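Title: Prediction job returns without error message
Component: structure pipeline
Severity: low
Priority: P3
Assignee: unassigned

Description:
Job completed but the reporter wants confirmation the result is attached to the right record. Sequence as submitted:
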Amino acid sequence: MISFTSAQLDAWLVALVYPLARILALIASSPILGNKQVPARVKIGLAVMLTLIIAPTLNDLPQVAVGSAAGLLILIQQIIIGIAMGFTLRLIFTAVEMSGELAGLQMGLGFASFYDPLNASFTPIIAQFMGVFAALVFLSLNGHLYMLAGLAESFQTLPIGNMMSDKGIYALVSWGGSIFAFALQLCLPLLAALLITNLALGILTRAAPQLNLFAVGFPITLAIGLFVLALSMPYFAPLMDKLMHAGLDSMLNVVRMTH
């Protein structure tokens, strides 16, 4: 008959529950894997599989019972760390969608909104297109594999039982503030072309006041916006690659800055 003591059971739970909390929190908050369209069974199954792979490599786990007050505090710490790491990568797609929203507003497509089931909100059509394109580029560049590699490395740089330092939290906040700059960089060519177009239409209206600006200006800005967007698509993948690596570095900096 197989028998085990309560100390052995606590050790098994510590080796599985604490890593599972961090991994599941990252998957739930990360892009692509954390979307609402991904079934909860898939997320939980992937988290359990990764836990079974990573758990044997962990050393010096805190010998604290999971059900104790100190164990619950460690559990909350792991959830916060996982959410912070996933949130860092999700900010990349927030910047891309913000650039699409800025471009759509300048093109006159601010009213063209569709229901986005991923975010459970209405999203401008250009922002939704840019978000889908960014997700495809992220997968083609193996961003999800880099994310899982960074997750495995986080258990070595920030072992279970330790919490993020103030420098790590500051790095997360600083990265969140940079999404506006990245969004502006992504849509800057389109904004520049539409600015020139609007200036030309303004001069044309002054020269010919009888011209109906709303009847002529909207098709012109829409056509030029779509044309410039099509021209800028080949250059979007290198920018996305740079942005993805910057996001991965920021995700690791959140857990690396322990002093």
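Comment from assignee: result matches the submitted record. The chain has one domain: 6-256.
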